[in-house]
């Protein structure tokens, strides 16, 4: 205990303090023991925010609200959660002076979060949305449950729920859309757009569309050895199927005349897919079931690959060429016989005179 004498002379020394009592009453700078979770805590008991500062500047702010979902605001003192917002999180980032410029991260939507970076914004009525980091990224108003992973100057548009931009630069997306890379603009519902490093926008043109700009070409492999697949060369307009002799085996000859006969007998009809409107120009072609039964029995009979169709076409062309050669041989032989017959007739006529 401290008596009046110590207070009167203005000296309170360590010997005047009951250390045992202090150890169980105050939080100590060197750590505490014997605490009970829920009973002992560091914080407030009134409806006021709690701030932790570093070098006199705010580094963490905990804001209470009536719903029991406090806002957590870390990083620069300029980082901001709008009044009335619930359960928002800003983990860090922002700056009062970074190379002479101030930057803030701002959340204006319930249960939305910004991981870090600078000058990132989640606007009004955009709940459950996330910006991971980066700089100058924005999820505009009324775009709940949308995500920007990071990058620079990426934008999820107004009224665009469930949009996603994983990163990159100058990408934008609308509802249910995905944009990635550089200057990819997924402006239609459900569109997927990816842009390579080439300068210039690559833009969707219809809903639920897959759009890719790959100025260096495109390759798709069906196995890890990269020995089977398709590719589109830079600037190309047609897909190439791998047909290297070195990746093939079990070679056997085919009867091209027999294939020609089967192809000639194959039913070819005009039709629409079930999901197409009658105004769509009809397609022309065989049914996969008929095609596979004729040429590839036992295989999947719901589709026809370009590789299968090309092989049959090439073989049939060879068969047709063989038939033409046979006809040409027959014509040549008939022509020779006719010429011989004409000579005999002329000789008879001449002898009769």
What does this structure look like?
- It is a single chain.
- This protein has helices spanning 4-9, 19-23, 256-265, 288-295, 306-352, and strands spanning 50-54, 57-63, 71-74, 80-81, 89-90, 95-98, 101-103, 106-107, 113-114, 121-122, 130-131, 138-139, 147-148, 155-156, 164-165, 172-173, 178-181, 184-186, 192-195, 202-203, 210-213, 218-221, 229-232, 240-241, 269-271, 283-285.
- The protein has 353 residues and is an alpha/beta fold.
- The termini are far apart.
- The strands form six sheets. An eight-stranded mixed β-sheet has the order 1-2-3-5-9-11-13-15, with no helix packed on it. It has an eight-stranded parallel β-sheet with strand order 4-8-10-12-14-16-18-20, with no helix packed on it.
- The chain is rod-shaped and about 170 Å long.
- 22% of the residues lie in helices and 22% in strands.
Summarize the model shown.
This protein is of the alpha/beta class. Helix content is 22%, strand content 22%. Helix 3 packs across helix 5.
């Amino acid at each position: 205990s401290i008596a009046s004498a110590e207070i009167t002379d203005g000296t309170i020394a360590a010997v005047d303090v009951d250390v045992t009592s202090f150890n169980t009453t105050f939080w100590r700078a060197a750590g505490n023991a014997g605490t009970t979770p829920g009973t002992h805590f560091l914080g407030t008991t009134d409806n006021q925010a709690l701030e932790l500062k570093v070098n006199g500047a705010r580094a963490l702010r905990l804001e209470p609200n009536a719903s029991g979902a406090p806002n957590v605001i870390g990083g620069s003192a300029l980082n901001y959660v709008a009044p009335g917002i619930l359960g928002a999180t800003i983990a860090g980032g922002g700056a009062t002076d970074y190379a002479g410029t101030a930057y803030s991260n701002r959340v204006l939507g319930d249960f939305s979060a910004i991981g870090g970076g600078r000058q990132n914004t989640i606007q009004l009525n955009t709940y459950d949305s996330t910006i991971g980091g980066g700089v100058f990224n924005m999820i505009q108003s009324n775009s709940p449950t949308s995500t920007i992973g990071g990058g620079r100057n990426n934008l999820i548009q107004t009224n665009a729920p469930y949009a996603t931009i994983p990163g990159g630069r100058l990408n934008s997306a609308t509802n249910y859309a995905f944009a990635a890379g550089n200057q990819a603009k997924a402006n239609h519902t459900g569109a997927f757009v990816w842009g390579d490093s080439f300068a210039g926008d690559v833009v969707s043109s219809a809903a639920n569309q897959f759009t890719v700009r790959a100025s260096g070409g495109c390759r798709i492999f069906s196995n890890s050895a990269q020995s089977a697949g398709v590719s589109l060369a830079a600037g190309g307009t047609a897909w190439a199927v791998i047909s290297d002799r070195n990746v093939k085996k079990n070679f056997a000859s085919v009867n091209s005349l027999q294939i020609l006969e089967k192809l000639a007998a194959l039913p070819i009809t005009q039709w629409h897919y079930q999901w197409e409107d009658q105004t769509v120009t009809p397609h022309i072609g065989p049914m996969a079931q008929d095609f596979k039964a004729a040429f590839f029995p036992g295989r999947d009979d719901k589709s026809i690959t370009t590789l299968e169709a090309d092989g049959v076409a090439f073989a049939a062309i060879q068969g047709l060429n063989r038939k033409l050669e046979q006809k040409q041989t027959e014509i040549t032989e008939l022509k020779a016989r006719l010429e011989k017959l004409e000579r005999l007739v002329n000789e008879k006529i001449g002898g009769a005179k």
